[in-house]
From TrEMBL:
Lineage summary: Eukaryota, Fungi, Dikarya, Ascomycota, Pezizomycotina
Catalytic activity: tRNA(Gln) + L-glutamine + ATP = L-glutaminyl-tRNA(Gln) + AMP + diphosphate
PANTHER family, A to Z: GLUTAMINE--TRNA LIGASE (PTHR43097:SF4), GLUTAMINE-TRNA LIGASE (PTHR43097)
Pfam families for this protein: tRNA-synt_1c, tRNA-synt_1c_C
Organism listed in the record: Apiosordaria backusii
MF annotations from Gene Ontology: ATP binding; glutamine-tRNA ligase activity
Glutamyl/glutaminyl-tRNA synthetase class Ib catalytic domain segment(s): 91-125, 149-424
Enzyme Commission designation: 6.1.1.18
Cellular component aspect of the GO annotation: cytosol
Start and end residues of each Glutamyl/glutaminyl-tRNA synthetase class Ib anti-codon binding domain: 428-524
InterPro entries: aa-tRNA-synth_I_CS, Gln-tRNA-synth, Gln/Glu-tRNA_Ligase, Glu/Gln-tRNA-synth, Glu/Gln-tRNA-synth_Ib_cat-dom, Glu/Gln-tRNA-synth_Ib_codon-bd, Rbsml_bL25/Gln-tRNA_synth_N, Ribosomal_bL25/Gln-tRNA_synth
The entry's keywords: Aminoacyl-tRNA synthetase, ATP-binding, Ligase, Nucleotide-binding, Protein biosynthesis
Superkingdom of source: Eukaryota
The protein's name: glutamine--tRNA ligase
Length: 650
């Protein structure tokens, strides 16, 4: 029976316009009809979007056969050029987050670039099959490749332990194993000593100018007045040393003194206009790692290049907003240290139709628009993960986009398309009914049906589903009044039930007097009527209840940040729909027990949560178990719809 049902279901295709499962021929007919209609409409000046007929659709790739090999990113284009500029047997890179918030999708690109570059140039002789590679890569990462995390933890006022922990976790989840985890704070003493050396070389002074004065020295508000050097640049070395030590020993109030580099105010690059090297933070929060030992902290511009040198970073890869900083990076390293890393800049990954800045997300959380940093409508890694997007799908997306020097603004639907492609062949299929209405099949005999988890991949195995007399179908799959162009259930009409040996024909129905809703449908098997035009999903009586959350775009526009009055004025009211009384077939329990689906990347090592329970709910979408679930309550999030949401970037 399983084979017959598998054969039948495998041949069905989703009609993206109606959401029905139909035979290939039926879909072809429908497509031709629609194409004709569209042609007539276009002749009449009105346009209708048409789904491509089966066979003409773009080939669907599986993650095992990626359209873009992950190595392509390092073999061609920007990153290949970077390597050619500095070919090295011992590539060392670092991913350098500031632990002041949770990482987002853009950071996944930075992680893939930094760890991937080191991995590629450290272990490129290994097979290019990603499945085989995973175990080997873990070993390779630890033993041979030199991709590190370095926390840029130079601003204790903004940093918290929870962010350090979450960042490390994200990198593991993406399937990378840092060869080392380091901290700028490991080098605070060494950095301090080098700051004194810079003073002794007359390349830094302690400055007391405030923000307004500094702005004037740099050409005023719009940069149109002549630039000039501040008077503190004339202080002698001894005075600067005494003052700098005074800063260190707490003799200056926060923000009344800062160490400033003596660069070149004439240089057209603002990064060379005597920028800050050390500052006294306003709040004097204890540092997560060094406590109250330091009252002064190095700036990014002082610490980053020096730490890169201390750690022997060969290729310091960062995003293009640091392009101007390259000059000060090289200037400082050349004065103070022997080993010279090479900084190069690639384009940031941005998504249209959302916000990713930590400050803005904090605003959404505080105003109750979203549940928290991991709300599935956001694009923080926590949110993407909770929503059920697998780490392998995130990486595929990054590899697909590749790396150039341009900042990319990608539509959410492109991201979702990539995720859908990844899930299509890697997760099992189940039946889920969002808004159940009972159908009593009067001539049904109770029996167990053995149905495959995948219509095409026998390796996924099969599970039992009980054919009960009373089953549940989607309320929207029944119409009280039939019509010619309607192909699902209606009085006197036949519809196929997925995985069921025979189609059913509705014979009568009752309604709830109070609500006017259909209460129960009576049906019989239609054993003589031949193949039905359309198939719908169902669940047997006794199936577990589930709360299903369907999320769509949080914002109306493509650029919420630029909307008049700010992104808060751009929030969609219907970005979350909850189906509290959905039902899922019991095969779900086996899917849950066999998680993670798919078994790949960072989830393979046993570190996975409920979100790795992923499946395709036929005709409804891809789903994952939400972290609000308990032993007695199933809560599901839709990962992505089965097709692109035409109403909006979902
Ligand atoms: N959108 C992005 N695309 C690609 N790389 C990014 C993106 N955002 C940050 N990065 C890179 O990730 C690394 C760590 O960044 P860090 O946490 O310091 O980011 P950030 O720029 O403060 O992030 P944000 O302000 O967007 O939260 C840096 O090398 C940074 O250039
Ligand atoms: N060079 C870089 O990649 C910059 C990293 C740094 N943590 C930042 O401020 O974004």
């Amino acid at each position: 029976m399983a084979d017959a049902i598998a054969g039948q279901t495998a041949k069905l295709q989703l009609d993206e316009e109606t959401g029905e499962m139909v035979a290939k021929n039926e879909l072809k007919k429908r497509m031709q009809k629609r194409a004709k209609k569209a042609a007539t409409a276009s002749r009449n000046g009105t346009s209708i979007a048409v789904q491509k007929p089966p066979g003409s659709q773009e080939p669907k790739a599986s993650p095992e056969e990626p359209t873009v090999n992950q190595n392509t990113m390092f073999e061609q284009g920007f990153l290949a050029e970077v390597y050619k500029l500095r070919p090295s047997k011992d590539v060392v890179t670092r991913f350098p987050p500031e632990p002041n918030g949770y990482l987002h999708l853009g950071h996944c690109k930075a992680i893939a670039v930094n760890f991937g570059f080191a991995r590629y140039h450290g272990g490129k002789t290994v097979s290019s099959n990603p499945r085989v590679l995973f175990d080997l890569y873990q070993l390779y990462d630890c033993l041979f490749t030199r991709g590190r995390i370095r926390f840029d933890d130079t601003n204790p006022d903004a940093e918290k332990e929870e962010y350090f922990v979450a960042i490390k976790e994200t990198i593991r989840w993406l399937g990378f194993t840092p060869s080392e985890i380091t901290y700028a704070s490991d080098s605070f003493q060494r950095l301090y000593d080098l700051a004194e050396e810079l003073i002794k070389k007359e390349k830094a002074c302690v400055c007391h100018c405030n923000e307004t004065e500094t702005k004037l020295q740099r050409g005023g508000e719009d940069g149109s007045t002549p630039r000039y050097r501040c008077k503190h640049a004339e202080q002698d070395v001894e005075t600067n040393l005494v003052k700098f030590r005074g800063m260190r020993d707490g003799e200056y109030a926060p923000q009344t003194a800062w160490l400033r580099m003596n660069q070149n105010i004439e240089n057209p690059n603002p990064q060379m206009w005597d920028i800050a090297a050390y500052r006294i933070p306003k709040n004097q929060e204890p540092h997560y790692r060094t406590g109250t030992k330091w009252r002064i902290y190095p700036t990014y511009d002082f610490a980053h290049c020096l730490c890169d040198s201390f750690e022997g970073i060969t290729h310091s890869l960062c995003t293009t907003e640091f392009f101007m900083s390259r000059e000060s990076y090289e200037w400082l390293n050349q004065i103070l240290v022997e080993f010279q890393p090479m900084q190069r800049e690639y384009g940031r990954l941005n998504l249209k139709g959302t916000i990713m800045s930590k400050r803005d997300i904090r605003g959404l959380i505080e105003s109750g628009v979203v549940r928290g940093w991991d709300d599935p409508r956001l694009y923080t890694v926590n949110a993407i993960r909770r929503r059920g997007i697998p780490p392998g799908a995130v990486l595929s997306f990054v590899y697909e986009l590749g790396v150039t020097t341009s900042n990319s603004f990608i539509e959410i639907k492109r991201f979702e398309q990539s995720v859908r492609r990844y899930l299509e062949k890697t997760v099992p299929r189940l039946m889920l009914v969002l808004d159940p209405v009972p159908v009593v099949i009067e001539d049904a005999q109770e029996q167990d049906l053995d149905v495959p988890f995948s219509p095409k991949d026998p390796k996924m195995g099969s599970h039992k589903i009980k054919l009960t007399r009373r089953v549940y179908i989607e309320r929207s799959d029944f119409r009280e009044v039939d019509s010619k162009d309607y192909f699902r259930l209606a009085p006197g009409k036949t519809v196929g039930l997925l995985q069921m040996p025979y189609p059913i024909k509705a014979v009568s129905f009752t309604k709830d007097e109070a609500t006017g809703f259909v209460k129960e449908i009576k049906a019989i098997f239609d054993k003589e009527g031949g193949k039905p035009k359309t198939y719908i999903q169902w669940v047997p009586e006794g199936s577990p209840a589930a709360e299903v959350r369907i999320h769509t775009a949080l914002f109306e526009s493509d650029q919420p940040a630029t909307v008049l009055g700010g992104f808060m004025n751009d929030i969609r009211a219907d970005s979350e729909t909850i189906w509290p009384n959905a039902m899922i077939e019991t095969g779900f329990y086996e899917v849950r027990q066999r998680a993670p689906w798919p078994e790949a990347e960072g989830e393979k090592n046993g570190e996975f949560g409920p979100e790795s329970v992923r499946f395709q709910a036929m005709r409804v979408g891809y789903f994952a178990l939400d972290s609000d679930s308990t032993d007695n309550k199933i809560v599901l999030n839709r990962i992505v719809p089965l097709k692109e949401d035409s109403s909006k970037n979902s």
